[in-house]
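tmp note - MADS-box domain-containing protein
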Amino acid sequence: MGKRRIEIQKIEDRKKRNVSFTKRRQGLFKKAADLCRLTGADISLLVISPGGKPYSFSSSSSISLDDLNYRLNNTIKNIKEGKVVDDETTRVSDDGFWWNNLNPEEIDSIKKLTAVRNQLLDVKEKVSQRKQELLAAAKAIDIATCTTTCTVVEKMEEDSSLLKDDLGMLLSDCYDDAQNWFPSIESLHNFESWLLN
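out:
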């Protein structure tokens, strides 16, 4: 027999409701964890039992229930006061830079202008620092590469010199042996003829 569709309605019996809550809470948290794993989203759940006990789930261990409560209360307070909620998703444009969404007409006071200027100067400073770090790293890599390359070249020159010495000694030995085996050029030619025939 397959699964049956259960109509969603309030369970009147208190004991059955508590049992159902316990089972469904675990399933809900499992589905949330699966969704986080599959999509990479950060999800936080707050579920309150029929008895009033809160249960929470968070995909990130750094997000605590107190932090979520604080952020929620601040957001509600800002909405009630009519303030624009300063959310990162509203500030970041498609390419990821907040200054692309900057509207100069919205800067209506010296205070706002100074704040934007300071933010841009901070960005400039951070970019400059990062540039210096990358240049220093590149120089370190170049120095290490040069040192390694110089060491390899020196070793190759050393090996080449040793090979030349060995080759010279080998040729000298061969010449001495050839003179012992073939005292004259004529005997060498006779030996060649004998080999070729």
